[in-house]
Amino acid sequence: MAQLEVDLVAADRKVWSGPARQVSAPAADGEIGILQGHSPLLAVLRAGRVRITSAEGTHVEAVITGGFISVDSDTVTIVADSVEMAGAAV
User: Fold this and answer.
1) pTM of the prediction?
2) Which of 9, 61, 67, 71 has CB 3.0 to 4.6 Å from 41, enough for a Cys bridge?
3) What positions does the domain ATP synthase F1 complex delta/epsilon subunit N-terminal occupy (predicted)?
């Protein structure tokens, strides 16, 4: 099965990285979903939830306060102003 390579980073550190099946994020003009083969994209993110389904099928969820998402060649990079995961600030 084809995969995405995902990096979720806060302004000062990497929060999560790994292979994934899909990513959804709160783009400025609506929710965006990313699957393998997505066309290149650069978008501004608003505050909301980023959801990642890992290659193993586990779900990763983070609350962000804004940032941007970049997609190119099945590589997804999410840079957020701040990230909170699993009830703890990260």
Assistant:
1) 0.91
2) 71
3) 4-82
Percentage of the chain modeled with pLDDT above 90: 89
DSSP letter assigned to residue 2: -
Tell me the two tokens of residue 84: 């909170």
| 5 CA to centre of own chain | 10
Q: Residue 56 has which token pair?
A: 């193993």
Cα separation, 85 vs 29, in Å, equals 23
Number of residues assigned to the chain: 90
- Residue 73 burial by Cβ neighbours in a 10 Å radius (0-12, 13-18, 19+): exposed
**C-alpha angle with apex 86: 85 to 90, nearest 5 degrees?**
35
**Which domains are seen in the chain, by residue range?**
4-89 (2.60.15.10)
Asked if 27 and 39 count as a contact pair (C-beta separation under 8 A), the reply is no
